[in-house]
Design a protein that fits this description.
Blueprint lengths: L13 H17 L8 H6 L22 H7 L34 H4 L10 E8 L2 E11 L17 E2 L11 H7 L10 H4 E7 L5 E6 L70 E2 L2 E2 L2 H7 L61 H5 L13 E3 L3 H5 L4 E4 L7 E3 L5 E3 L1 H10 L18 H13 L9 H15 L1 H10 L18 H10 L6 E6 L3 H14 L7 E8 L2 E9 L2 H10 L3 H13 L4 H10 L5 H12 L6 H7 L24 H19 L12 E8 L3 H14 L1 H4 L9 H5 L2 E3 L4 H14 L3 E8 L22 H6 L2 H5 L3 E7 L17 E3 L4 E2 L2 E2 L5 E4 L1 H7 L9 E3 L1 H13 L5 H20 L11 H13 L10 E6 L2 H17 L7 E5 L9 H10 L20 E6 L12 E5 L10 H9 L3 E4 L3 H13 L26 H6 L31 H16 L29 E2 L9 H5 L7 E2 L6 H6 L4 E4 L1 H8 L18 E3 L13 H11 E3 L21 E5 L6 H19 L1 E5 L27 H6 L16 E2 L20 H4 ...
Helix pairs in contact: 10-12, 11-14, 21-42, 22-42, 29-30, 30-31, 30-32
């Protein structure tokens, strides 16, 4: 016999579960297939992973000990164990499993009948081998090393013998395990592998005995705090005789095998008592001690403890801290209900059985109920006799016909479906080949059901989800070994077939069921019948009628015979359970019909007459009438005094409460974060390659918000929309907004919705450039399929959402984005959902790892916070139930069985409220007819308005879902209020979803005063506007529809919610009504309050006690008396703050002296108190302040005054009260007296039905509230019973994936038909889901989203372009008055242009900090140019302007539109653009080697190139002819060098070129090739050789030009063969920056009278127009360089008066590669290479022309380009800022070397520190530095003069110039000594010679005879700070002699 495990043996280990869940989620996110591998198949089918145990663990014969977990791991690690290396066995020995190394058989089956020698002191034990799960190996072990009965006292170590070969004396278990060939993969341990004692049975055969009890695993009885069963279930008394009983047939163990590599606890079905338990067992021939047997007896019969269904009250493992025996986590009960919806699982049609009328469920027509055999007659008057309709759940097999009084019973297929689903559990494993794995047997199912029912408490209702979990676990664990074996055997050819499991036989079943039920005090009764269920049912009816089943809640009828399958059914006879279950089978509409029917037919009158008999003084109505007559004369009593005559508190005599505010629209940090998340999701849809949303094509936003058909919700949304200002912000409406205009944007989903929606659709079609956002708020409401809503015409049109939002127009419109917003997204997260998991946005949690992510001044109280408040250690629980109310309802339920419990509950509650009102008004005898809770609510409500000088009060929400019942309640309460003369004290409001709010005139006037409203016709339209109004709001409607409640809400009475229909969404949305924001800036106040309260124990019983409590941040202040603190653990609110107060309710007797009814005296009291404080006389507050303005007619309850400290963070509304008080830290006794203020500082108190309370506050094994494991929504169903529990650690995303995997919509759900084979197609690309807790601010978040989306769209259509004036304009040319062209000339005249002088001065503003270039022609203005900026700051400081993108702009990778899909190569309809890589080599003498370039050419661009025919070798790039003319063609190839801008570079020229054909080549570095190719798959790439990876832009320009010239030669040769002259080939290329965004043309109008008069306009034009214009220039091939101006908003007329200039050109140039053949770009340059090139082109006598009527706009791009060069130290990787002064050093010094090209260091050094080399040149503009053959930037304070050493070059005349310095940079052989001697230098002028190495430095000095005129010193030699391998540059400086 095995022994039961510790009661706490298996707390569910979630770590492994979470890991698998996480992996599953990740896999599903990554994969295209939406249905990932089931989590549990991963969790339980992975070899060598530990099994998570069930809640109540026991050890079984296929389990491993927990040592493995605790010793090896010591933590809940989920990593697999370290593999264990087995020593190789000695050669020649036997290694067969089951045999020892000597070759002898050790298997128990083989040697059980052999005689085995057992030495004294040794025992035979069975060892388990992981490779033979079905066998035990026999070993002899010294018993000193085995544990005693308590699992203790085993010696460490091991001593054993081999029974096969007889070898003795094994001292190590490792050695022994090797000998017997265990072949372990983990460290051998005796605790893990020695499993069972072996005993001889009566026949003398050796058999498996009890489990070896390592580490105290004997069964401990569990105390169940809620179960009615005895404390240790099924523990048999010794006298039961079972230990000696002889069972006619032995019961073999159900699951004899499991691999040793698995740790398993608490299987549900593993073990049935083996024969050893029933016959005198012999231990190795010795009698076993009796207590040994008793210890082990009947483990199988204690099975319920194994199911996880028992309360798990043992202490947790040592690693769990803070366990308290009373905590809810340790008293877990299964107290849920059956879910009616599950019946739909068998049927695919929409009509659920549960929604049919009762009679239909019974008759033979209802399909799963088809009867068989003889009929059973239902007795007459059954309902009358039993006081409840029994509910019969069909179980297994055939069910008989019922006849007779069938209206008095209900038959349900629910259990039948559950059993059938559980039979198919094993299908999940068929993919592993485990086809022989048996499903859970019918007998076992029934036995488990009995176990489950037995441990349900008297007030609990069975829940189908619980049973499913039990079946699943039971099945899973009993088949673990086979599952694992199959998994491990997959690679093998012939896996071993496991031995079949021995099931519970049908003969044993009734006996075992009876045994199980024997301990439960008759709550479960078993009826066994031999022929058919009919006889059992007849007997059950007979027992019912005879009254013998009064204590019985469940009758289990079993018909079991050996030769056929069992028949069974379960009858619910408990009145409470039967009522709840039968009512749960009504659909919501049937529920309303039933209640309506009972009200209309007058059935409820019996209830009314019953109530009137309760009151000893006669009918309540008579009492009320009497009270009314007596008090009519002096109504103006204290009750309404404070309302009618407001208390005066200041000199002016007006009463003011300073705490009033209605929250207007303000955006909280959370809402902003969510809006930004929404925006980023929209952007990611737009950025994805699917082209589903082209944000770039939209110019503005429009929207429509759909809300449920609740008038209040509609008005509330209008209110938010109005105050958000969003309509004005989006430009949808102008100022002076009217309500009618706002209503255009909100649509109620009612009958008129279709008209509004049609307009919306028409607008979306007419405005393709507007993005329409369709917001579906409260999106879980009405998910009916439009197909199914056609036949049952209810009052409200259902299926509207499906009809409108899912219509084809919305789905296909490319400019409509649908956003579903809901607090309960589960119904939209099914297997067929339209919403991609990527498009879900969940409200962020406020804390992450304890860090407050968003600093908010309010704390949100939602479901989890409410539940938390019920845990011990917290202050007053916010969730409560009312036990006296529940008891009365239960009693009346038995008395009136035909009335629906909703009717009974409503009538009882109305009675309670009526009695409570009367008690508060002085009829003290009535307090016995109400509950303490209702009295508390009523008392606080009535007294609230008197505690505030302005009459502010509390709101009580009374939730009555059924509209007819709500109307009854309203009438009754209204009537009672009138009779008690309370009509001015508080209002009663009937909140009906279909109509607006109606309140009395008196209260409207009050609200208008409080809210300072002048409008005569104003009426409150939302509940939010009832802020501060003392009222009972009767909230009706089957579901709340998104209505928000004001902050003065104090009590949320949900005692009447429909608790029988248990669906997660329904429960959570009811509780969502109470969700609340509490101001969290009140800690100071809290401290004072609690201090006052704690000090005076007498005051602790005050009625208003908990009003003082502030429950922010999980306040832990306990302030109940010890007696109450003790009782509060049950959370029965009857034991909370009111238990001792019933006697203190106001009566007519006079109040104590401390409290006066006189308003004047109270006021004086208040005044006096205030003066004291004002004078500052009192710095601390006395512990016993007299009550202020509080007229609670109480006896001993003098309430301690609550005090608030006004701090700097207090709201600006407390003006009048703080005006007269000292400002620093004075105490104000004002706002704290207002009940509304107190209410707004603490969440409301929620009263729930007991059933719901238990579900919400109890947790399942995963640690989540039970409610979260319920079916999520009534129109979805579980995909399988075989599903894991949700985990407490699940994020919202993981929860969504859980529901997406495990739920499917029913046919009535609108997503039902959303299925297709290619799973991904089912998601709609423009649909998003925003989910967040109720009342948290989702409306504000999505309105904010619209705002930032609109701003982004505007931003997307705009661009920041550089807007800077040209520089150096003041340096005039001498002949500046001469103009060579007319302002209106379109092209330059070649002859005139040749006469134009070249303007050496740089005018481009980006060179503001570059050296000025001097020429003889210029008059140098010696102004200080030192205001130049550092190069690093250039990009951040440069001036930009935001411009609207034109239709001719160039775009980056983020732009998508229909037109350029094909151009970009992303369109999925086209082939994926293939590219080919082509090498292109040419030799270049200057580099001294062949240059190898690579082209990447997409297939679509191959027509631009010529390939050799046989080998497809790239030969050349096609060039057009000079004479070609075509409108649709650009002749010049465009080259764009780029680095670091694969995303941001403007390479999409499709729109800029206006669709014209053009050749565009991106020039990229080799290491960036792949990323550019990914982003621009359809662009031609020219890849630079790897030696240029760290080169600057000069290298790219150099290679572009050389390649183009080489290509020109090739094309000339190729086309010459075709008869074309070489000079006819087009010689131009365009070199463009990657930031050119738009191009403009200036149009000059010269139609004025005088020639000099002209006007000009600038307009945006396409690049095509500009290039075609330039290409058409007469004699264009005579120009070497053609460029255009850079755009500036400050362009003056003078600049464009001359249409063409001969000057520097930058950024966007047309280069004639033919003319410039001998002028090269400097491939080493990083900066100013274009200036350098321009100067050399000019000096070569070539023409440079700038078209002044064209300009280019350059976009500011913050990444890439020059900024991609970072100069850092070569030694350390840590980024240290290195100043330019450190860029050079002395040769051979210990200076830190830098990881940067030498040329870059040189250029940067000269830019910032050239004054060190040229001290005389600083700001000496008339004596520039002479720079030979190059232009280097020496910084803005030094001027340079460029000269070329080439023969015949154009140079300025230097005759009159004296230079202050000479710069020789890498000079070539053209520079000779005689050339330098022509120039004159100042005395002391300096020279700088720069060479590649020290050797060439010396040679240059000698060759140029420099020592003749210049003096050198050894210390004047420098080098760039490069290591030798980086080839530093060397320089030598000298002084002129």
């Amino acid at each position: 016999m095995l022994s039961m495990g510790n009661s706490y043996a298996g707390q569910l280990k979630t770590t492994r579960f979470e890991e698998v869940l996480h992996n599953s989620i990740e896999a599903s996110l990554r994969s295209n297939n939406l249905v990932p591998r089931p989590i549990f198949s991963q969790l339980y089918l992975e070899a060598e992973q530990q099994l998570s145990s069930l809640e109540a663990g026991s050890r079984g014969d296929n389990e491993e000990e927990e040592e493995e977990e605790e010793e090896e791991e010591g933590s809940e690690s989920s990593s697999p164990p370290v593999s264990y290396q087995v020593k190789p066995p000695p050669e020649g020995c036997c290694t067969t499993d089951g045999f020892c190394q000597a070759g002898k058989d050790l298997r128990l089956v083989s040697i059980s009948n052999e005689h085995i020698e057992v030495p004294s002191g040794f025992l035979l034990v069975g060892a388990k081998s992981p490779n033979l799960p079905d066998h035990l190996l026999v070993c002899a072990v010294d018993k000193r090393f085995l544990p005693d009965d308590n699992g203790r006292n085993a010696l460490l170590g091991f001593s054993g013998n081999c029974v096969g070969c007889g070898k003795k004396g094994f001292c190590y278990f490792t050695e022994f395990s090797n000998h017997i060939n265990l072949k372990l993969t983990t460290q051998p341990k005796k605790q893990k592998h020695l499993k069972y004692y072996l005993v001889r049975n009566a026949q003398g055969a050796l058999t498996k005995g009890s489990v070896i009890c390592w580490k105290g695993s004997s069964f401990r009885g569990r105390q169940s705090s809620t179960s009615t069963c005895s404390s240790t279930l099924f523990q048999l008394p010794e006298s039961s005789g079972l230990s000696g009983s002889t069972s006619s047939e032995p019961l073999p163990p159900a699951n004899p095998s499991a691999p040793a590599g698995t740790q398993q606890t608490a299987a549900a079905v593993d073990h049935i008592p083996s024969t050893a338990a029933f016959s005198p067992a012999v231990y190795n021939g010795k009698e076993s001690p009796k207590q040994q047997l008793m210890k082990n007896n009947l483990s199988a019969l204690t099975r319920p403890s194994v199911l996880g269904t028992l309360t798990n009250s043992g202490p947790p493992k040592k690693r769990h801290k803070g366990w308290s025996p009373e905590s809810p986590s340790s008293t877990e009960t299964w107290n849920l209900q059956l879910n009616p919806q599950a019946s739909n699982r068998i049927k695919n049609d929409g009509g659920s059985l549960s929604s049919l009328p009762h009679s239909a469920l019974v008759g033979p027509a209802s399909s799963p109920m088809v009867g068989s055999g003889e009929p059973v007659s239902v007795p007459d008057n059954l309902l009358k006799i039993c006081k409840a309709k029994p509910v019969i759940f069909k179980g297994h097999g055939n069910f008989p016909y019922l006849c007779g009084n069938i209206n008095d019973v209900i038959v349900s297929p629910l259990l039948y479906t559950c059993y059938r689903n559980s039979q198919s559990l094993s299908r999940a494993y068929e993919q592993y080949g485990a086809s022989t794995i048996q499903p859970i047997s019918e007998e076992m199912q029934l036995l488990l059901t009995v176990y489950y029912l037995v441990q349900l408490a008297a007030d609990q209702v069975p829940l189908i989800e619980d049973l499913e979990q039990i079946f699943m676990r039971s099945w899973r664990e009993s088949h673990l070994s086979e599952i694992r074996q199959y998994q491990q055997a997959v690679p093998q050819a012939f896996p071993q077939v496991p031995s079949p499991i021995t099931p519970v036989t049908s003969a044993q079943l009734p006996w075992l069921a009876g045994l199980a039920a024997s301990s439960c005090n008759d709550s479960v009764h078993i009826i066994e019948c031999s022929y058919s269920l009919a006889e059992g049912l007849s007997e059950m009816f007979k027992l019912l009628v005879e009254g013998k089943l009064i204590k019985t809640n469940y009758v289990v009828i079993i018909c079991a015979s050996r030769n056929r399958a069992i028949d069974s059914c379960i009858v619910i006879t408990g009145k409470y359970q039967a009522r709840v279950l039968s009512e749960s089978m009504l659909s919501p509409s049937d529920y309303q019909k039933e209640v309506n029917y009972q009200l209309v037919t007058g059935k409820v009158e019996t209830l009314g007459s019953f109530f009137s008999t309760l009151c000893p003084e006669g009918d309540i109505d008579l009492l009320l009438e009497k009270f009314y007559q007596e008090n009519q004369g002096h109504i103006s009593s204290s009750l309404s005094a404070s309302v009618n005559k407001p208390t005066a508190v200041n000199a002016a005599g007006t009463a003011v409460c300073t705490s009033y505010e209605i929250e207007r629209h303000q955006i909280r940090p959370f809402q902003l974060a969510v809006a930004q998340k929404l925006l980023s999701h929209i952007c990611s849809i737009a950025d994805s390659s699917t082209q589903n949303l082209d944000l770039g094509s939209f110019e503005k936003i429009d929207f429509l918000i759909c809300v449920p058909p609740s008038e209040v919700t509609y008005q509330q949304t209008l209110f938010h929309l109005w105050h958000s200002g969003i309509l004005l912000e989006l430009g949808l409406e102008k100022e002076h907004l009217t309500k009618q205009r706002v209503e255009q944007y909100v649509m109620k989903l009612d009958a008129e919705a279709q008209i509004k929606f049609k307009i919306f659709l028409q607008n979306s079609m007419q405005n393709p450039h507007t993005l329409f956002v369709l917001i579906h708020d409260h999106a879980h409401w009405d998910l009916m399929s439009a197909m199914h809503s056609l036949y049952p015409q209810t009052e409200l049109p259902s299926g509207l959402v499906d009809r409108l939002l899912n219509c084809r127009e919305v789905k296909e419109a490319p400019n409509i984005v649908t956003l579903h917003v809901t607090s309960f997204p589960y119904a939209l997260q099914t297997q067929h959902t339209h919403i991609s998991p990527y498009n879900e946005i969940h409200w962020p949690s406020s804390y992450s790892n304890g860090v407050d992510l968003y600093h908010e001044n309010k704390k949100y109280f939602g479901l989890s916070e409410f539940i938390e408040s019920t845990l011990s250690g917290h202050s007053i629980p916010l969730l409560r139930y009312d036990s006296s109310f529940e008891a009365m309802v239960m009693a009346l339920g038995k008395r009136f069985p035909r009335l629906h419990s909703a009717v009974i509950r409503t009538f009882v509650l109305i009675q309670h409220y009526s009695a409570a009102m009367m008690a508060v008004c002085g009829l003290s005898q009535m307090k016995n007819y109400t509950s303490v809770e209702t009295l508390e609510i009523t008392q606080n409500l009535i007294n609230s308005s008197r505690q505030c000088p302005s009459g502010h009060g509390l709101m009580v929400v009374l939730r009555i879902p059924c509209i007819p019942l709500a109307a009854v309640a309203y009438e009754r309460l209204y009537n009672v209020r009138e009779r008690l003369a309370l009509e001015d004290n508080f209002e009663i409001i009937l909140g009906n979803p279909n109509s607006g709010i109606t309140i009395g005139k008196h209260f409207v006037e009050q609200l208008k005063i409080w809210q300072k409203i002048e409008d005569v016709d104003w009426r409150p339209q939302t509940y939010l506007e009832l802020e501060g109004l003392p009222c009972i709001l009767i909230f009706s409607g089957m579901d709340p529809q998104g209505e928000s409640l004001p902050r003065s809400l104090r009590y949320c009475d949900l005692r009447l919610i429909n608790s029988s229909s248990l669906v997660r969404t329904s429960l959570e949305q009811e509780l969502g009504l109470a969700a609340y924001f509490v101001s969290s800036e009140i800690h100071t106040e809290k401290a004072v309050v609690n201090d006052v309260l704690e000090s005076d124990p007498e005051k602790l019983s005050s009625t208003d006690n908990e009003d003082e409590e502030i429950v922010t941040e999980g306040s832990t202040s306990e302030k109940r008396s010890p007696m109450k603190r003790e009782r509060s653990r049950s959370h029965d609110s009857a034991s909370s703050s009111l238990s001792s107060k019933a006697s203190t309710v106001c009566t007519e007797s006079s109040p104590p002296q401390a409290l006066s009814n006189s308003t004047e005296e109270t006021t004086n009291n208040y005044e006096r108190q205030k003066q004291k404080v004002d004078k500052g006389a009192q710095t601390t507050i006395s512990k016993h302040l007299p009550p202020v303005t509080e007229q609670l007619d109480m006896k001993q309850n003098i309430k301690s005054t609550q005090v608030s400290i006004t701090s700097s963070s207090s709201p600006p509304f407390s003006s009048s009260s703080s005006s007269s008080a000292p400002t620093h830290n004075s105490f104000i006794l004002q706002t704290s007296q207002c009940s509304m203020t107190k209410a707004s500082k603490q969440p409301p108190i929620v009263f729930l039905p007991k059933l719901v309370y238990d579900i919400i506050t109890s947790t399942d094994s995963s640690g989540l509230p039970k409610s979260s494991s319920l079916l999520p929504y009534h129109s979805v169903m579980w995909a399988s019973s075989f599903r894991p529990l949700m985990s407490k650690m699940m994020t919202c995303t993981e929860q969504s994936l859980y529901y997406r995997q495990w739920t499917v919509p029913k046919p009535i759900h609108m997503d039902y038909n959303n299925r297709s084979e290619g799973r991904m197609d089912t998601f709609h690309p423009r649909r998003l889901l925003l989910s967040g807790p109720p009342q948290i601010g989702k409306t504000g978040a999505y309105l904010q989203f619209l705002s930032i989306l609109s701003r982004m769209l505007i931003r997307l259509t705009e661009v920041d372009v550089y807007d800077e004036e040209e520089i150096n304009i003041n340096i005039k040319e001498e002949e500046s008055d001469q103009y060579y062209h007319q302002p209106g000339d379109m092209w330059p005249d070649l002859e005139s242009f040749k006469k134009m002088p070249f303007d050496y001065t740089i005018h481009d503003p980006k060179y503001e900090d570059a050296s000025l270039i001097c020429s003889k022609l210029q008059t140098i203005n010696s102004e200080d140019k030192s205001k130049g900026r550092r190069q690093e700051d250039m990009y951040t400081c440069r001036q930009t302007t935001r411009m609207r993108l034109s239709k001719y702009a160039a775009y980056n990778t983020y732009h998508h539109c229909e037109q350029c899909h094909q151009y970009m190569g992303f369109n999925p309809r086209y082939q994926i653009y293939e590219s080919t890589l082509h090498a292109f080599a040419f030799s270049y003498s200057m580099l001294g080697e062949e240059i190898q370039l690579h082209f990447i050419i997409p297939k679509s661009k191959e027509h631009h190139f010529v390939f050799s025919q046989p080998g497809r070798q790239l030969e050349s790039m096609r060039l057009p002819l000079v004479t070609d003319k075509s409108e649709d063609y650009i002749k010049s190839p465009t080259f764009t060098p780029t680095t670091g801008r694969h995303e941001h570079g403007l390479f999409n020229l499709y729109h800029a070129m206006d669709g014209a054909s053009h050749l565009h080549v991106l020039v990229v570095k080799e290491y960036e090739m792949a990323i550019y190719k990914k982003y621009w798959p359809n662009h031609i790439m020219l890849v630079l050789p790897s030696i240029f990876n760290s080169a600057g832009v000069g290298a790219a320009h150099f290679l572009i030009k050389e390649l183009s010239y080489h290509n020109l030669e090739l094309e000339r040769n190729r086309q010459e063969e075709l008869g074309i002259k070489p000079q006819d080939i087009w010689p131009f290329i365009v070199i463009s920056d990657d930031s050119c965004v738009m191009w403009n043309a200036v149009e000059v109008d010269c139609s004025g009278d005088r020639k000099s008069d002209y006007t000009w306009t600038e307009r945006n034009v396409s690049l095509k127009q500009i290039l075609q214009h330039i290409e058409a220039t007469p004699n264009v091939t005579h120009y070497a360089l053609i460029g255009m101006r850079k755009w500036s908003s400050k362009t003056s007329s003078a600049e464009i008066k001359e249409p063409f200039s001969c000057c520097h050109v930058h950024d966007f140039i047309m280069l004639n590669v033919d003319l410039t053949q001998n002028v090269q770009y400097n491939q080493n340059r990083f900066t100013c290479d274009d200036v350098d090139f321009n100067l050399r082109v000019h000096s070569a006598g070539l023409l440079i022309c700038r078209f002044n009527h064209f300009n280019v706009m350059k976009k500011q791009i913050a990444v890439g380009g020059q900024r991609s060069f970072h100069i850092k130290s070569k030694v350390s990787d840590t980024p240290v800022s290195i100043s330019p002064a450190q860029y050079i050093c002395a040769p051979d010094s210990k200076h830190t070397f830098l990881a940067a090209p030498a040329q870059l260091l040189l250029e940067k050094y000269l830019q910032y520190h050239s004054h060190r080399f040229f001290p005389l040149s600083l700001k000496n503009y008339s004596h520039p530095v002479l720079s030979v053959d190059c232009y280097l930037n020496l910084g803005p304070q030094i001027a340079v003069c460029y000269v070329s050493s080439r023969p015949h070059s154009l140079n300025i005349s230097s005759s009159g110039l004296t230079f202050s310095g000479l710069l020789l940079y890498l000079c070539d052989s053209f520079v000779v000594a005689s050339f330098l001697k022509k120039f004159h230098f100042l005395k002391g002028a300096t020279l700088c010679v720069i060479c590649q190495d020290r050797n060439s430095l010396r040679q240059t000095v000698v060759r140029l005879e420099l020592e003749d005129e210049w003096q050198f010193r050894l210390r004047d030699e420098f080098q760039t700070a490069n290591a030798k391998e980086d080839r530093p540059l060397f320089f030598l400086t000298g002084r002129h002699i």
